[in-house]
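User: Sequence in, structure out. Go.
Assistant: Echoing your sequence, followed by the structure tokens.
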Amino acid sequence: MDVRTGSGQAVGERRKNGAHADKGSGLAYGRRGKRGTPRRVAPYRDVLNRLRPAYPRPGRTGHRRWIPSWRQVLGSFGILAGAFTATVAILYARTDIPSDLNAFATQQDNVYYYADGTEMARTGPVDRQDTALEKVPEKVRWAALAAENETFYSDSGISVSGMTRAVSRMLTGGDTQGGSTITQQYVKNAYLNQQQTFSRKLTEMFIAIKLDNKMSKSDILEGYLNTSWYGRGSYGIQRAAHAYYGKDVSQLDASEGAFLASLLKGAALYDPAVSAKNHERAVERWNWILDRMVTIGKLSPKERAGYTRFPEPKAPPKPAGLSGQTGYLVDTARAYVSAHTEVSDADFDLGGYQIRTTFRRQDVEELAKAVEDVRKGLDPDKRESDRNVRVGAASVATDGRILALYGGPDYLKQGFNDANSTVVPAGTTFGPFVYAAALRDGIQRQRGGPRVTVTPATVYNGDDKVAIRTPEGPYWDRSGKIVKASNDGGRSYGPITLKDAVARSVNSPIMQLGMDVGLDRVGRVAVQTGLLAESLGAKVPAFSLGTSTPSAIRMAGAYATFAAKGMNSEPYSVDRLSRNGDPLEVEKPSAERALPVSVAAAVDEALRDSVRRGAATAAAAAGTGVAGTPGTGPDNKSAWFAGYRGRTATAVSLFRIDPKTQEPLKLDGLGGAAASVRGSTYPLAIWTGYMSHGGK
């Protein structure tokens, strides 16, 4: 008897006999039925039984019986690979090349509206013009290929390694840009969208393979160059040539082509006109592309040696219809859309957006009129001191809405927005932040000692030329001199309360107060109420007298915090956004507590006192409930007035800039006044003229 089976016949012998039973029938006998009749099974059952993996593995003990054999591993991998291949084959077969191009070929304007819904401006449509590939110089073509896909003419339309990297980054939450061939990019531009999803990437790959088999490489390259975004509202290399160099694409050389090719990586990052950092990136990318052209044999070393100077593009063109203040308003709103929505610059340039801004048309017009009325008192033709005068102004509601801007005399003549300029020292309009920090945090005159509470009635020395002190003694500057505070006109006030020091814009007590509070604490209050940290000046004694350079928008927003009883709302310029009538989400600021109510009330009272009997009595002409203070910057190189009435705060800055050196000039003798007369009378006049009619 076989000890393994308990029968008189060995298993091997039974299998042998069974294997030869009834050969003529083509069937094998299995287990007998209830009546002893042999059950017939399919001829492949025995084969399947043999192929079925023995798992857990017989003949193994312990954990080893659970470890699959190499045959089992390879078999599993083969099954998975086969399933994946079959899935990809099915998806590939079901993916067709779309019959129509993207809708970007039928572009629309972007329409901007005032707060009341009346139309402000239209920009666009997207500037695009198809051009035949033969009109694009060969070296310009190869500049694009060297930058994006140097193996274009030999690849199959996709980059497996690039797709693998993109999918890997997508799964790990990284950037999926890059790694696509020219064909894939053309598919994305012309047939799909810019979304970075796995399904879109897979569809892009399948269409690219089919397109590569259907279209010639020349046609694909032509389509790619005609549909790529180059920034400045331009789609296609023909319009890009005009936007950056004012010439036809056929007139471009290899150097200019290399720069345009750099824009394919991201025009918002490589347009030199946007920022100094962009310029630096553009030059680096331009050099790299030219070097790659040499490496792949499409530019000789001798030709490369001739391209040593970066081909500076021309300044961006100013769109028509943006004259006066309109262009400044549009730029401000567009910047907000870019920073506070999910809409990319490329999508925005495709058009079709409706932007409802916070700007009130009447306020914009009243602010511009107030500036121009005051400018009439200047005579740049006769007086040197009246030349190169710049004005920036902004009006901001306590809830953060920017109601009006004055960015310059005309956007088409001066594209830079002076309402957003951060080069103008705030002067004594910075004093209320020092005062607020003292009331909130107290002062500390002994190193390591307790902080002492101060009130509006706390008395400081208001005399001229008072030495500034620290807990260790007098403050010495780098030249070895004791720092002293100078009051306007050299006037000494004697003992003076902090409230009066703010109301009268007395420098000496404010400078010492800042040192006693701690300049870091003063800066913190300035930022919490609305100024940008990057606009703050160096933390030296003069910091409290306004060496910081906030924009008029930010200064108005900070003063709105005082008007709002210490609640700060970030300035914003877009109320609603939609595309073809479909609403899109726009981030809006929420109010946050910046100062205790009692501190804001004390600052408010000092600013009202400034109008009643202090340094800003002329502002009373704007009506009742006015609060504000003038400001004069170091060396009389800037002048301000900032204040509010009701729930609207307005800040006006005035300065002179040398057009050649871009250095600030003194305001001495402005308007024919004596050199000793400060320039702050002009911002005060603008503020009063505007607030008398606008900002209500």
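User: And one key feature?
Assistant: The CA atoms of residues 367 and 690 lie 5 Å apart.
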